[in-house]
Amino acid sequence: MPPITLYFLQASRSIRIAWLLEELGVDYEVKAAEREGQKAPQWMKDEAGGLGKFPVLKDGETFLYESGNITEYLCDKYDTEHRLLPPLGDPKRYQVLQWVHAAEATYMLHSLAILYARWNQKGGDVAATEAGLALNVQKDLDYLASERGKSKGMFLVGDGPTAADVMMEFSVDFILTRELGTKGREWERVDQYRKDCQSTATWKKAQKKTGHQL
Ligand SMILES: N[C@@H](CCC(=O)N[C@@H](CS)C(=O)NCC(=O)O)C(=O)O
After folding, report:
1. Start and end of every GST C-terminal domain (predicted)?
2. How far is CA 166 from CA 53, 81, 146, in A?
3. How confident is the model at residue 149, as a pLDDT?
4. pLDDT by residue (tens digit) across 152-190?
């Protein structure tokens, strides 16, 4: 039995950690569950603890929460050659971490506001709320497209996937697939970036092992 268990809620940010584990070549067991309504099933929340949000990683006896935190933990422990996360003090580390944090604190924050309005707004004009909130998402995608335009590598920081891509791929896929604030606009470079991530052998392996499907 591998010492690592990934609690994987369908279809969620959990794919980030499966992709990372495949990139690291670390063996892991998946405990996967479908959502019940929009929520994680109670057995999974009881077993994994914390806030009841997924992914959750168990390494030995230690439980880890928050996909960005799990990403840093796994890189610190298993990425001994610093391929996915450059070492402390290296300026490239902070380029990678910029995207690790932006994936949750900017891209998911802005797009989830729209999903929550669709799900939860009672009364008022949901389309008007969405139009207002779309401004931030559009700026975020414009920025990503412009950074992709400047970069010579296929991925966000260089030629191979890093922790930046592990975190950003899901955010981009989530926004484009659910059309959160995109309002019929297309971002060719962003779409190509998503395709490049999903074409890696490691992402495909993670998808197959977990059954992830947005
Ligand atoms: N910031 C957290 C967010 C985790 C989160 O909200 N996960 C959602 C799925 S993407 C979840 O578990 N929802 C199930 C529920 O609310 O019951 C992270 O990056 O891990």
Report:
1. 89-214
2. 18, 17, 19
3. 87
4. 889 999 899 999 999 999 999 999 999 999 988 999 999
Beta strands in 41-199 (DSSP E): 56-59, 62-65
Is the beta carbon of 141 within 6 A of some atom in ligand 1? no
Q: Is the CB of 13 under 6 A from ligand 1?
A: yes
Pick the CATH number of 91-198 from 1.20.1050.10, 1.20.120.10, 1.20.120.140, 3.30.70.1350: 1.20.1050.10
Take residue 53 and report the two structure tokens written for it: 């949000």
User: Is there an atom of ligand 1 within 6 Å of 66 CB?
Assistant: yes
| Below-70 pLDDT ranges, the chain | none
Interval between CA 124 and ligand 1 midpoint (Å) = 27
